[in-house]
Structures are given as structure tokens and as C-alpha cells.
Design brief:
Layout: H1 9-46, H2 62-76, H3 78-93, H4 104-112, H5 120-130, H6 136-148, H7 159-179, H8 183-186, H9 188-202, H10 205-210, H11 216-223, H12 228-232, H13 234-254, H14 266-280, H15 298-301, H16 309-312
Helix pairs in contact: 1-2, 1-9, 2-5, 2-9, 2-13, 3-4, 3-9, 3-11, 6-7, 6-14, 13-14
């Protein structure tokens, strides 16, 4: 009998380190957005009783940019939140019999307050408002393609390619201005908090051993065993999250300069590599929506009452 290959622990550890760093950046972006909102409120108050015209979201709104990267991270890794919810449901059902002195209070609180949290449908709706795949994915693909085109320029300026990069970046920025304002930005802190909780639970070694997993990703797949498509797409989603968060952070920090670049900047090479990583894991073009007449009705599908904690989440 041949032995199965040992899991690559270093790769898993590298991923978890990268994810922790990305979440730390998300916290910084979120704090920056809150600080900007406070400063804006103070500035309005200092104007006194003055009638202002209706607000128009500017394409370079700094508060919007501050939330762009963190919300995109949640958008790509929402599957981890679903996996964590199933993990909590399994624990609440008694199926997981392990001693978790640090996590048990958090898991019990999450289960008790599950109806007060953003549900899967609510999260996906908010994230679809911000990152509609029909619009955002093609715009992101153009941007990453424009970035990787700079790789062959031997650290020299290329006006044609740099203008293309500026136009592609402006396209993503315009979508952000139109889509992120309102509910997605307001819910940003809750969405990031749910992702942070998910990584904490899925990263617990005792829970991993209880389900025969060896790292965070394999535990997420074990929790999503009844949703094979979502489980199979985790690796690509993780690569998009890694690369996309770096690219969007570059967008946020370079919007004020009109996306002018220095070909000799070492940081630009990091962004180009992140763009290539995103392109290699780029999502397939979304299928056209079926006509309304072809969609099954709720009555036809039949409503089944949840029979287990997992279904009841």
C-alpha cells in the first residue's frame, strides 16, 4: 500500500500568515474610513446652518477607497465564513467532542446570536452590490492585464501602456465610487469581523484534528463537504484574495497621483506579481441570467423546515 503524500505545512503556514497580514491591512483600512467619516462630520458641523446641495459620490472619495480592499477580501473569502458557520453548527449539535477552553465561549456566543448576524444571503447581497461579477470582474481583469504589461519594459517608461493602466485603474475606481457607497460601506466593519472570526475558528488546531484536517483550508473544505463547488473553488478564491487585495491597496494609495508610476519602484514589481496571481485565478465569465419564466417558484421547489443545527443557521 502506498502512503498518501504529506500535507505541505509550510504552504499552509505561509497562507495563514498572508491572510493574517491581509486582515490586519483590512483593519487599518476600516479604521482609516471611520476616521475620515469623523473628520467629514466635524467639517460639516463647523459650517454651521448652511444648506448644501445633494451629495454626489466623487470618483476619488478617500473614505470609499479606504474600504475597497477590505470588502474585496471578504468578497473572495466569503466561503470561509460559510464554512465557519457550519463548523459552529456542528459544535452546537454535539458532533464535535473536543475541549476548547478559549473558543467555547466564542462559539456559544456565535450560535446564540446567529440570527442577529448578517446571514449568508445578506452578505452575498451586500457584496454583490459592491462587486457585481458582471461588471467588476472584467474591470479587474483589464486592470491586472494593464499592470502585468509593464513587466517587459525593463524598468523604462512606456507612455502607451501607462495611459492604458491609468484608464483601467480609473474604471475600477469609478465602479467603486458607484457601488460601494451606502449599505456595503456601512456593513464593512461587520463583514470584516465575521471573516476574522471565521479564520480564528478554522485556524484552531483542535478543531482541525476533530474533523481530520491539517490546516485552515482543509478544515474549511471538510465543513463544505455538502457544497463541493464552493469547496473546490476555495483555492482560486484564496489566490484572487491574495493578489486582488494588493492591487486594490495600490489603487487606494495611488488614486491621488492619477496612478502615475515609477518603473524603478520595487513596490511596483510586487503589485505586478500580485496582478499576475489574480489573473491566473481569474473567475470564468458569468453565465447569462435565465429568463424569469424559466426560474422555479418557491411553491414548485417546496419549502422544507430545517431539521438540524446546520440547516438552521
Amino acid at each position: 500500500m502506498s502512503d498518501s503524500p504529506a500535507p505541505d505545512k509550510s504552504a499552509a503556514q505561509n497562507f495563514e500568515h498572508e491572510l493574517a497580514s491581509a486582515l490586519a491591512c483590512a483593519d487599518e483600512w476600516q479604521a482609516h474610513a471611520q476616521q475620515l467619516a469623523h473628520q467629514f462630520a466635524q467639517a460639516l458641523a463647523s459650517l454651521g446652518d448652511i444648506r448644501l446641495p445633494d451629495a454626489v459620490v466623487p470618483p476619488h472619495d478617500r473614505q470609499t477607497l479606504a474600504t475597497l480592499g477590505s470588502l474585496y477580501l471578504v468578497n473572495e473569502l466569503e466561503g470561509l465564513i460559510q464554512a465557519a458557520e457550519k463548523l459552529v453548527a456542528l459544535w452546537a449539535s454535539g458532533a464535535i467532542q473536543v475541549h476548547l477552553p478559549k473558543l467555547e465561549p466564542l462559539l456559544a456566543k456565535a450560535w446564540k446570536e446567529r440570527h442577529l448576524r448578517l446571514s449568508r444571503d445578506e452578505r452575498q447581497h451586500l457584496l454583490a452590490l459592491a462587486f457585481n461579477p458582471q461588471e467588476f470582474a472584467p474591470a479587474m481583469q483589464r486592470l491586472c492585464g494593464a499592470l502585468t504589461a509593464l513587466a517587459d519594459n525593463a524598468q523604462q517608461h512606456d507612455v502607451r501602456e501607462e495611459v492604458g493602466l491609468q484608464q483601467a485603474a480609473e474604471g475600477v475606481l469609478e465602479l467603486a465610487a458607484l457601488r460601494l457607497a451606502g449599505a456595503p460601506t456601512v456593513a464593512g466593519a461587520d463583514l470584516v469581523a465575521q471573516l476574522r472570526e471565521a479564520t480564528q475558528w478554522l485556524g484552531d488546531r483542535a478543531l482541525q484534528l476533530a474533523l481530520g484536517a491539517h490546516d485552515m483550508v482543509s478544515l474549511a473544505r471538510a465543513c463544505l463537504v455538502t457544497e463541493p463547488a464552493l469547496a473546490a473553488g476555495l483555492s482560486a478564491a484564496l489566490d484572487r484574495a491574495r493578489g486582488g487585495s494588493v492591487v486594490l491597496q495600490w489603487i487606494a494609495t495611488h488614486a491621488a497621483t492619477g496612478f502615475a508610476i515609477d518603473p524603478r519602484d520595487a513596490g511596483l514589481q510586487t503589485v505586478i506579481a500580485a496582478a499576475e496571481r489574480w489573473l491566473l485565478a481569474a473567475p470564468a465569465a458569468p453565465a447569462p441570467t435565465a429568463p424569469a419564466a424559466m426560474l422555479p417558484t418557491i411553491a414548485a421547489a417546496g419549502a422544507v423546515a430545517p431539521a438540524s443545527p446546520i440547516a438552521a443557521w
